[in-house]
Structures are given as structure tokens and as C-alpha cells.
Amino acid sequence: MNRIILPDGRELCYELTRKRVKNINFHVKDECVVMVSASPKVPIKYIEQCLAKRADLFFGAFEKLKARKIASANSTESVKWLGKELPINIIENSRETAVFDENECRVFTRDFSAENVQELIKTAKTERFKALCAELNEQVRAELKARGLEPPPAVITIKEMKSRWGSCSYTRGHISINLRLADHPRETVLSVFWHEYAHFWHHDHSDRFYRFLLDMFPDYHKYNDVLKTG
Ligand SMILES: [Zn+2]
Do 12 and 63 lie in a common domain? Predict the structure, then answer.
């Protein structure tokens, strides 16, 4: 790859291929490189003069390509987050991260490829969900204590699971929460926490288990039943 510095300080990159062509041919390949093919007889200096003369044209073409890439990346799809379908907003930036808020998922990146965008979203979503789970865990433990029950020590693991939304190993003091719950509302995630914590007191799904669970979290069915259908 070669580059020329224009009088106004901008850099223009090009790749030169020597071919048996009559004139010099220019072709904008991606958003920063001009492909040049020219006969072996044409001196470099002349080629670079031609490039400089057409620089505005090339930079205009770069911008168009970039805009098209952003548009296609933006239209890929939305992302599910806590029961909402958030539109993806891609912003050109060197931060390489994704940020979730109430109304949208903003992706800051210089690489608009679908794979990169999806990867940034997945990483951010996992981190946000882990933070939420830490919060919900504290909430459940605090409410148990407020009701005079001492919650046993519990290690929380967030992971993708195929067949279960959560599980509780009451002997080892271990609760697993399915990462896929990040698609569902906060209260639904909370209902899974209550379900798993209830197993510390009742190991099966008996009436006594549900009586305990509903006593602690009366809206259990309202928020948890959605998980049975989808
Ligand atoms: Zn259970």
C-alpha cells in the first residue's frame, strides 16, 4: 500500500497494479483505499498527480461507502434487553464498546461488520446482566433477612443454559442463572432468583415450596409464567 500527502494535509492511500491497460484506471475498493491499475510505462509521479487531482472525488466515494456500511449494519436487527426490543444505533468511534439504555443500544466502533457489532453487543449485554444479577441477589438476600430468615452463603454463576432458567445446588450453596434471561424483564429475572433461593428451604416443587415462594414474592406467577411459553 502506498500513500500520498495532499497539500491540505489529508492522506490518500492507494494500491498500484501494473497491467497492460491503455490509460490509468481508478477504483475505490473500501472506505480508505483507491485501487489503481496502470501500464508499466506510466511513471509513479504522474499517477500520484492524477490521484491528487481527483482526491475530492475519492474522499467523497469513501464517505458514501462508509455511510452505506453503517446503514446496513444499523438495519441488521434490534437487540432484546430486559423484555424490550432495543434498536441498534452504530456510532463511528474508536472506543469499541456497546452501551445499553432505556431506548436503544449504542455501539461505538470503527468496524461496522455484523460480526464485530454482534460481538460488542454480546459482551456488553453479558456484563450488564451480571451486574443486574449481583443487584437482584443482594435484593433477595436483604428481603430474606428482613423477614427473619438467614440466607445461606451462595455463589452465583451466570451462564448460557439449554434447558433451565436457573438451578440451585443447595448442598454446595451454588445458584446458576441462565444468561438468556437477559432478554426478559427485570421482575422475571427476579422471580428466578426467588425460585432458586426458595430451594434452600424446600428442595422439591411441593406445595410447601410454592407457599414459601409466593409468600416471599407474591407476583411470582405473573412474572415467571412467561418463561413456560417461550
Ligand atoms: Zn426448582
Answer: yes
Q: What is the band of 66 on the pLDDT scale with cuts at 50, 70, 90?
A: confident
Q: How far is the CA of 197 from the centre of ligand 1 (A)?
A: 9
Q: Name residue 82's amino acid.
A: L
pTM score:
0.71
Question: How far away, in angstroms, is 79 Cα from ligand 1 center?
Answer: 29
Intra-chain end-to-end CA distance of the chain, in Å: 52
Centre of ligand 1 from the C-alpha of residue 171, in Å: 14
C-alpha cell at 133: 444479577
- Residue percentage of the chain with pLDDT more than 70: 97
Among candidate residues 115, 62, 118, the one with its CA nearest the CA of residue 107 = 118
Residues 84 and 146 in one domain: no
Residue 191 lies in domain: 126-229
195 Cα: distance to centroid of ligand 1 (angstroms): 6
- Give me the residue label for grid cell 481508478: 26
